[in-house]
Every structure is written in structure tokens, then in C-alpha cells.
Design brief:
Elements (H helix, E strand, L loop, with lengths): L11 H12 L3 H13 L14 H13 L1
């Protein structure tokens, strides 16, 4: 097994609480959360792309973060 590492302030219990909360969401709550995020006006966006492109997109995002 590999050692689990968490961001500062996070531990296994906090992750489990979040997973429990997310698993309990209804479809309507997921949609509402997505709509709220889209209206946030931040510097991010949501785009639907073919699944086959995900490996290339992940590589681009990883390169962007290190640039």
C-alpha cells in the first residue's frame, strides 16, 4: 500500500465526512451546485468534451500548472 497524504488541514476523517456528504446529495442538489458554480463568475469554466480527449486535456492542465 502507498502512504496517503492529505493537504494541510485535512485528514482521513475529514475526507470521509466530505465523501459521506457528497454521497448523500440528490441529483437536484448536484445540479444546483453546478449551476451555482457556473454563476460564480470566477476564472474557471465547465466544458463538456469527448472522453477520449481527457488524457490530452489532463496533460495540458498539468503543463499549465507547472508553467
Amino acid at each position: 500500500m502507498t502512504e496517503q497524504r492529505f493537504p494541510a488541514g485535512w485528514d482521513a476523517q475529514r475526507v470521509q465526512r466530505l465523501l459521506t456528504e457528497l454521497d448523500a446529495r440528490t441529483d437536484e442538489e448536484w445540479v444546483a451546485a453546478d449551476e451555482a458554480a457556473a454563476l460564480d463568475g470566477g476564472d474557471q469554466t465547465v466544458v463538456t468534451v469527448p472522453a477520449a480527449l481527457l488524457p490530452d486535456i489532463r496533460k495540458l492542465l498539468a503543463a499549465h500548472k507547472t508553467a
